């Protein structure tokens, strides 16, 4: 599987650390008070397009600035778990201190800053926007928010992240990719829970309805009747109200359904367990029946046709 790579481990001084971050992570500005003595180590792994970075380093600051945003168009999320020591994360007007067991989210499409203190270790999980169950505009409400290991879904998510970091070398093949996908889905649940709790606390029924409706859509993606009218009726609101709720989150109902269906198709196309299914059969499982239409929207989303994507992920191709 070409999108799954073995664990790579290296140690760096400050200059080489800046270079490796530029090559492997999103472009950022790096600063350090003790450059001559700075040391860092990195273990990395790519599982199905989900990148894991297990980092140990001395104190330094990393900032994604407006200049960095102008130089690339990467649309990825990062989940950072503090394993040892401490760090801070800042984005969208929010700053949090992370201690061991805490994790947080950042979005590469906007400025953010990280400050790492001496003798720290963290896991960073980086993945495309399309893998998250909620849209970017909605998730800006939880970026740089601390999620603790003893709070809500964090009780499950934090140990899962830690065990992933400690066992990167043992994750391989499609079983490793499935673990990575399960991790992203679990983290998505943590963010959805946080959004719902905050919306209830601030008496924001519109935003709370949006998260609830997103869950409904995710549970019914294979239903060919899934449409704005169908969703509105099932959630006891008018179609006009439904469109207003989604408009406030800067996404249309149809776009959200399409993106979630495409992501499910992408996962199945790369899964050897589904190699006996044709591309058309996989698309039909997610209520996409027009082969030419599916090929066109898949290519627009992922840069290649469904057949080419499957071929790039599997040792053998079933078209």
How many domains? The number is 2
Count of DSSP H/I helices: 12
Overall morphology: globular
Radius of gyration: 20 Å
Name of the CATH architecture of the largest domain: Sandwich
Per CATH, the superfamily of the largest domain is Jelly Rolls
* CATH top level class name of the largest domain: Mainly Beta
Estimate percent helicity: 40-55%
CATH topology of the largest domain: Jelly Rolls
Alpha-beta classification:
alpha+beta
Summarize the main sheet: 6 strands, antiparallel
In order across it, which strands form the biggest sheet?
Answer: 1-3-4-11-6-9
Beta-strand share of residues:
15-25%
Number of strands: 11
**Can you tell me the residue ranges where pLDDT is under 50 for at least 5 consecutive residues?**
none
What do you see in this structure?
- The protein has helices at 14-24, 66-71, 136-139, 154-166, 173-201, 205-219, 228-234, 239-248, 253-269, 279-285, 291-302, 306-313; strands at residues 8-12, 29-31, 40-47, 50-57, 60-64, 76-84, 87-91, 94-98, 103-107, 112-116, 120-128.
- By secondary structure, it is an alpha+beta fold.
- It has two domains: 8-171, Sandwich (Jelly Rolls); 204-313, Arc Repressor Mutant, subunit A.
- Helix 4 packs antiparallel against helix 5 and helix 7 (228-234) crosses helix 8 (239-248).
- The chain is globular and about 60 Å long.
- The two termini are 17 Å apart.
- The relative contact order is 0.10.
- Residues 211-312 form the HTH araC/xylS-type domain.
- InterPro entries: AraC-bd_2, AraC_XylS_family_regulators, Homeodomain-like_sf, HTH_AraC.
- Keywords: DNA-binding, Transcription, Transcription regulation.
- One of its GO terms (molecular function) is sequence-specific DNA binding.
